[in-house]
Amino acid sequence: MGTLINILIDGVVYGLLLFMIAVGLTITMGLMRFINLAHGVFAMLGGYAAIWLIRQMGLPWLPGVIIAVLAIAAISVPLERWLVSRVYQRPPLDQVLLTIGIVFCMVAISGLVFGTRVSSMPFPEFLSGSLDLGFKVLPAQRILVVSVGVASFVGLWLLLEKTRFGIQLRATVDNVQTASAMGINTRRVATLAFALGAGMAALGGIVGSALMPIEPYYPLTYMVLFLAVVAVGGQGNLTGTLVGALLLGMIDTATKYLAPQLSSILFFVAIIVIISLRPNGLFGRAAV
Amino acid sequence: MTQTTVKPSLALGTLHTGRLPIPELIALVVGLGCFFAFPSNLGFMTEIVIMILLVLSLDLLLGYTGIASLGQAAMFGGGAYCAGLFALHIHNDPLLGLIMAALFGGLMAGVSGLLFLRAHGLSFIILTIAFGSLTFAVANQLNWLTGGDDGLYGYIMAPLFGAFEFDFFGRTGFLYSLGILLVVFYGLRRLVNSPFGLSAQGIREDRQRMTSLGFPVYRVMLMIYIIAGAIAGIAGALSAQTIQVVGLQSLSFTMSAEALVMLILGGTGRLYGAVIGTVVFMVVHHYAADLDPSTWMLVIGLMLIAVVLFLPKGMVQLVDMTRNKVSRLNGGAGHDNSK
Amino acid sequence: MTTLNEQPAVTPTASRFSVQGLSKRFGNLVVADDIHIDLTPGARMALIGPNGAGKSTFVNLVTGLLTPSSGRIVLDGEDITTMSASRRVRNGLVRSFQVTRLFRELTVADNIRLAVLQERQQYMRLFSGLANTPGLDEEVQRILNELNIRDRASSLVHNLAYGEQRLVEIALVLALKPKVLLLDEPAAGVPDSESDLILEAVGNLPKDLAVLLIEHDMDLVFSFAEQIAVLVNGAVMATGTPQEIAHNETVRNIYLGKGH
Quick one: which of C87, C94, C70 has its CA closest to C16? Predict the structure, then answer.
């Protein structure tokens, strides 16, 4: 029973973290049918930026994190405009190759600049403690992940459902041609969505650094994981992504609790089984 | 005008070449030339030959059938471990080990392909990456069998054909690998120019249309996937047998990605593109050996980005461009069959 | 196979292909509503209907890309309702494509070769050269001659004029030796200067082949069809000879409109 509760709680924490990082991926894939293997780069860069701002520049924690997130979102704009958007119309393979190229470059540069070892994220005093729930002691950082994760989902939902940008975004996801015929500047929507996703990933990378440590191979280590969230949840589907992220977070946590020796094997088997059985996502339409 | 002068099969518009092993003979001459010219680099040249085999297997998948896999290292590493274990525990004859590895590579491809080939696009790519990660994790987990991080070693290959020892300088290893490469290359050339090969290209061009022509597309793709897996397994076996050690990196994502880089660099859908790309990549890698691993990774990354942006059809594109220019200079018109 | 078909005396009115009560619903949306269509060998029927009437849904149901909610599809007495799309083709139910869907990076001859290889079940020959495949080139040659595109054999398809591409499309379909052909807007997008080519090719289709023409172009429909079925809102609204359909008031109002 205790194990079950642990799996449940840690699984939710991990799932919400995956959601934060992968949600940008699901939006850009839904929008431009763009396969991005480099999305984890933004999470890693967010982590590095925050560490640098707080440790080297001496910024207080919260402003450091906010500036780091905004900086990564800003950096993603020229990247989308000048590099990524050039392969939107190209075959999936070109997108895969280009984004692997980006991953390799960023892994290499991070290694050269920050060293190959894990860089530890500073956290303020009030986040270093832990909370005793009675049946389980929960580190404050995990509570941070849960709160930021839930807030992100609600915020994104409101953004998509209630704002003008959200309507334009959903219309573009639905059909780029129609949206552009309706006078929506789909290029602008795509760039903004890309920046939003990059910022979300950076935020996830920062608050989740205790679970997914910041190191140069971060984008490669978690590549399958982020992509799998999108494949399971369905491209361009916000709720689907949340469900997919929670499911995968839960599976990963369960394997770590129940069979720590075999956890990565079992996890990959689970991913393979789920995606082979439902290649269009859990909520996807059947193949046309 | 043309109909009267050319052979019937050419008049019928086939772009496919004959069955004489001319390319293989050229490769043999070049290979032997290198053998005598660079006697101190045989180990490196063996590595090139092995990588060419792996990249050829990927070209069959991607270039001829349009199956974009990022997990071909699974079959390569699988073949390597199979050959290593076979030599260590059962029999150390190289050709027997090679056959076992080919079968094992084909089996891995068959089982995974059965599951994966129903998926398309993103899902298929993720499945192949995940399969690669899974095999890596399994090999790591079974360290009592595979040696884990230390690698699998301690086996000594029997002489090839019972006569040629695998010598310290790698002479036998190189000639053995070259011979296998030529045999596989000839087989592949026959394959891609056969009715089956044309069907594969039809699938690459338009899967759904092939279904509408009545082809059992899934079954054809599965066969191609198995053949490519067997070739990757052969490449892995050669690696295990000539280096006499198998490491986990033979199963890594980087291995799959590098093979893809070599293929794309050379150009897909032509067997010689795979050869050119691999040679160029490996030579650059060799001379960049002084770079630390991070810098080398940066070089690969930049190469990938540059190829996608500036040379989407690979280096064979340069060959075509030159050829077209030449034919235009010669007043040759209607050169629309550059393929 | 063809020799069997040349014995109409045995079962003169036998049905070659029939669609019986075919329906498709997505939730509450009915996109195909109890469709009945029957083709005898050699039938020349046209299926017409305004945009959104459900013509392409019908084609997808019949070819196996969509699974019907109810109803049966019968080919030569065999129920093929649940058969896979490619098996249906191998059994003789073939469609052509509305938008040209050819293998654009292959030559015209290789395009036709693919179809012939399937029809002759020779595509599993792994190592023998194409030129050594018995009967292959002769058959490709015959089809090229039949459609008068022999001198384009070595051209890559994407270098052909649009009308020529449509001819290659028809060549692919004929190479499969179908029993039933769904001819989906064969003249769509063809410029007037090339439309004669298409009319001629359609007119020369084998006599014992049952053809269902799905078409917008009324000139083609009335010059080709012996029977016309009118599809409106997923249901067959009227069936009859061209004369009957041309004089049917409801059809005129709903479909032919002011254009005619």
Answer: C94
Mean pLDDT along residues A146-169: 90
Contact B264, B312 (CB under 8 A): no
Distance from B184 to chain C by nearest Cα, in Å?
12
| Chosen from A33, A41, A79, A93 to mutate, greatest number of chain B CBs within 10 A | A93
d(CA A112, CA B195): 51
Two tokens, residue B251: 């199963």
- Helix axes B171-192 and B271-287, enclosed angle (nearest 10): 150
Residue B203 lies in a domain: yes
Q: State whether C151 and B196 contact (CB < 8 Å).
A: no
Whether B328 is covered by a domain: the verdict is no
How do residues A53-109 score in pLDDT, each as one tens digit? Answer: 999 888 998 999 999 999 999 999 999 999 998 888 888 888 999 999 999 999 999
CA dist C167 and C198 (Å) reads: 7
Quick one: CA dihedral A42, A45, A49, A51, positive or negative?
positive
Domain assignment present for B233: yes
What is the domain partition of chain A in residue ranges? 24-217
Task: Spell out which residues of chain C touch residue B187, defining contact as CB-CB under 8 Å.
Answer: 127
8 Å CB contact of B131 and A224: no
State the complex-level ipTM.
Answer: 0.86
Q: What is the CATH number of the domain that holds B71?
A: 1.10.3470
Residue B102: pLDDT band with limits 50, 70, 90: very high
Q: Do C81 and C72 meet the contact criterion of CB atoms below 8 Å apart?
A: yes
Closest partner CB to B195 (pick from C109, C117, C141):
C117
Closest partner residue to B141 (CB to CB) among A100, A262, A269 is A262
**Which residues on C lie below 8 Å from B198 (Cβ)?**
106, 110, 113-114, 117, 123, 130
Question: Which domains does chain C possess?
Answer: 2-101+178-259 (3.40.50.300)
Closest CA to B275 of B63, B37, B40: B63
Report the first-to-last Cα separation within chain B, whole angstroms: 22
- pLDDT tens profile B193-237: 899 999 999 999 999 899 999 999 999 999 999 999 999 999 999
Phi, psi of B272 (to 5 degrees): -70, -20
pLDDT for B338 equals 37
